[in-house]
Write a sequence for this structure.
C-alpha cells in the first residue's frame, strides 16, 4: 500500500475513523495551491484509495473560501525563458495527474465548497463524487478571461456535468456560477445556506462512511466507465463487479441482517 506523504505546508490531513479529512490551509491566499500541495494531494488520493481504514475522503478549505486555484504568483518571471512546449510537458506529471487519480479512486470523495472555487480549485471540486456547496459560493473558470485555455480537466469535466451550451457559457464567457445555480444545473450535488454547509456535508460524509465501501467503489468505477463503454462490454464489467461485491464481508452482513430483521452493520470490507 502506498504511504501518505510527509507534512505539507498549506495542507492539513486528519484521519478520524473511516473519514480522511483533507483541508487546503492557505486562507491568506484564498487557499491557492502550490506545487507541493498539488503533488501531495495526488499522493494522498492514491494512498487513500488502497487504505483499508479509509471509507470516504472529505476535501474542504480553511476560512471563507474553498480554493482559488493555483497560486500564479509562484510562477513569476526570472531566469531563462523555457523551451517551447515546457508547459504541456510539466502538466503531465503535475496537475494532469490529479483529476484522473480522483476519478479512478474507488473511495468516495466529498468536497464542501464555500466562497470561491476557481480554476484548478473548481476542477478539484467537480472531480469529486459529491459537492455540497453554499448557495452563495462561486464557481469560476477564468481561463479564457485571462487569454489562455482551460487546464486540469476543466474542459472535460464541465461539459459532462452540465452539457455543451452551459460549458461554453462558463468557459468561453467566464460566467461565475453561484452555488444555487450550480445545484440547479447539476454541476454540484446540492446547495445549502452557508450556515448549514458544515452540517450538511458532515451528514453526507457520515452516510457514505457507513455504507458498503467495496460496493460503493465498484459502482463508482462502473459509472465513470459507462460514458465511453459499449453496452456489451459494460455488462461484462457489471458482472465482474457483482462477483467481487458479492464476496465482500458487507454483502454477507447484509444477508444476515435481512434474515435477522435488523439493519446491517457495514464495516467497509
Amino acid at each position: 500500500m502506498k504511504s501518505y506523504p510527509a507534512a505539507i505546508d498549506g495542507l492539513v490531513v486528519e484521519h478520524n475513523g473511516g473519514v480522511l479529512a483533507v483541508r487546503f490551509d492557505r486562507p491568506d491566499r484564498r487557499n491557492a495551491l502550490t506545487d507541493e500541495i498539488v503533488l501531495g494531494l495526488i499522493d494522498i488520493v492514491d494512498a487513500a484509495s488502497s487504505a483499508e481504514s479509509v471509507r470516504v475522503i472529505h476535501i474542504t478549505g480553511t476560512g471563507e473560501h474553498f480554493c482559488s486555484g493555483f497560486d500564479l504568483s509562484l510562477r513569476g518571471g526570472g531566469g531563462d525563458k523555457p523551451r517551447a512546449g515546457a508547459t504541456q510537458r510539466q502538466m503531465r506529471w503535475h496537475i494532469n495527474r490529479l483529476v484522473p487519480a480522483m476519478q479512478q479512486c474507488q473511495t468516495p470523495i466529498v468536497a464542501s465548497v464555500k466562497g470561491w472555487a476557481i480554476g484548478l480549485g473548481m476542477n478539484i471540486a467537480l472531480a469529486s463524487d459529491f459537492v455540497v456547496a453554499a448557495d452563495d459560493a462561486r464557481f469560476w473558470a477564468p481561463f479564457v478571461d485571462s487569454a489562455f485555455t482551460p487546464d486540469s480537466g476543466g474542459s472535460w469535466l464541465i461539459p459532462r456535468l452540465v452539457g455543451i451550451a452551459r460549458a461554453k457559457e462558463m468557459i468561453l464567457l467566464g460566467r461565475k456560477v453561484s452555488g444555487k445555480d450550480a445545484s440547479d444545473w447539476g454541476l454540484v450535488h446540492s446547495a445549502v445556506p452557508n450556515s448549514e454547509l458544515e452540517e450538511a456535508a458532515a451528514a453526507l460524509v457520515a452516510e457514505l462512511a457507513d455504507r458498503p465501501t467495496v460496493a460503493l467503489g465498484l459502482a463508482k468505477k462502473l459509472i465513470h466507465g459507462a460514458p465511453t463503454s459499449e453496452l456489451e462490454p459494460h455488462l461484462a464489467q457489471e458482472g465482474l463487479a457483482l462477483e467481487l461485491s458479492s464476496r465482500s464481508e458487507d454483502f454477507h452482513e447484509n444477508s444476515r441482517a435481512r434474515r435477522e430483521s435488523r439493519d446491517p452493520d457495514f464495516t467497509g470490507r
